[in-house]
Amino acid sequence: MQLPSTLLENAVAAFAKLPGIGKKTALRLVLHLLKQDEEVTIEFGEVLQKMRKEIKFCQRCFNISDGTICSICANSGRSKEMICVVENIRDVIAIENTQQFNGTYHVLGGIISPLDGIGPDQLTIEPLIERIKKDKVTELIFALNPTIQGDTTIYYIQKKLADSTCRITTIARGIAFGGELEYADEMTLGKSISNRQPVQQYIK
């Protein structure tokens, strides 16, 4: 793509690094910003810069947060005895949009996948085990993507909790095997949360 300006070309290249954004879309976004008042573009850049510098991760559940503890963990109306385990922050957002869950979350930061070089030590599994013991959690709900890697992760954590009295469940398989929570419609995901089943029915 030949562009008349190196500055324009650099901006397009930066936008094109975003997932799902090709060079044509990136060019359209950059040209749109150029049409705006200078203050609008400056504010856009400052907001992104401020987010990157100041955003934090919750010390309890590893969700994104403005402070040391996220708004969900800090909410006294949420059940601290019920933890929903998810792979990433996008899954927290997806489940919250269903308005079917009133507990707290734990973001693993991925799933066990030896082929990709991801082992248990690279995830927040140990902090999860500590939370369960410390907060006297009564139910642990796995809301991981229904894949072999997701099931492997559930199996590993379940074994780590073999001596725990905590009830371990997983969302109902209304989500197709191999699918991703992020792309499930809210009704299907909400039903999966409401109709969760004991892990033993799925993980052998």
Notable characteristics:
204 residues; alpha/beta; Helicase, Ruva Protein, domain 3; Dna Topoisomerase Vi A Subunit, Chain: A, domain 2; 2 domains; two-stranded antiparallel sheet; 13% strand; elongated
> Could you say which structural class the secondary elements and strand pairing correspond to?
alpha/beta
Query: What's the story with the biggest beta sheet?
Result: 5 strands, mixed
N→C terminal distance: 53 Å
Strand order of the largest sheet: 4-3-5-6-7
Q: Any idea of the CATH class of the largest domain?
A: Alpha Beta
Query: What number of domains?
Result: 2
Overall description:
The model has no long low-confidence stretch (mean pLDDT 88). Helix 1 (6-15) packs across helix 2. With 204 residues, the chain is of the alpha/beta class. A 5-stranded mixed beta sheet has the order 4-3-5-6-7. A two-stranded antiparallel ribbon has the order 1-2. The protein has helices spanning 6-15, 23-35, 38-54, 71-74, 89-96, 125-134, 148-160, 186-194; strands spanning 56-57, 64-65, 79-86, 103-107, 139-142, 167-170, 197-198. The protein folds into 2 domains: 6-54, RecR Domain 1 (Helicase, Ruva Protein, domain 3, Orthogonal Bundle); 75-201, 3-Layer(aba) Sandwich (Dna Topoisomerase Vi A Subunit, Chain: A, domain 2). The termini are far apart.
